[in-house]
Amino acid sequence: MSCTFPTLRPLVTEGEQTRLVAWAHELRAVHARLREALDLVRAAGEDPEVARDLLVYCRGFCTALTRHHEGEDRHLFPAIASEHPELADTLRRLSQDHSMMSHLVGGLEAALDRDDPPERVHSHLDGLGAIMESHFRFEERALLRILETLDLDADPADALGPL
Q1: Is the domain 16-160 a CATH 1.20.1440 member?
Q2: Whose CA is closest to 97, among 58, 136, 125?
Q3: What is the DSSP letter of 86?
Q4: 62-72 confidence digits (pLDDT tens)
Q5: Do 131 and 96 contact (CB within 8 A), yes or no?
Q6: Cβ contacts of 105 within 8 Å, gap of 6 or more
Q7: Domain boundaries, the chain
Q8: pLDDT digit string (tens) for 3-56?
Q9: DSSP code of 7?
Q10: Nearest CA-CA partner of 160 in 69, 66, 88, 35
């Protein structure tokens, strides 16, 4: 006697899984683009030929970083909190990091407004870069696996910033 089993439909279709895993990939990609933007800003300040563009690069970087964190705070973190209440402390820490980086961005922008010497601007960039890198690493360790299963129906540009 042979026994046959009905064909079971997967819990998540291939298309749904691609959409879900895309959030983890998108977060990594946004972080990579922000790292590249910071490197570009640093390089602009070191090359006398493009030093005049430092202001433009810094403002663009500051805007991109701010919009990324605003999107996470408005869209991504509430969706994670809804599905994973056990991550409340992690999300609170990440939001506190966002607040700290916002303060550092303000300091960088003030240095630019005062036309501080490049070494002072670079000091601000170095501090912001160190905090940003620590934050990105922690966020990726804490959230990438969650993002692979997060059911968030949002535009990535809204949730992660328009990068």
Answers
A1: yes
A2: 136
A3: G
A4: 999 999 999 99
A5: no
A6: 62, 65, 66, 128
A7: 16-160
A8: 443 333 334 344 444 444 478 999 999 999 999 999 988 887 666 666 667 788
A9: P
A10: 69
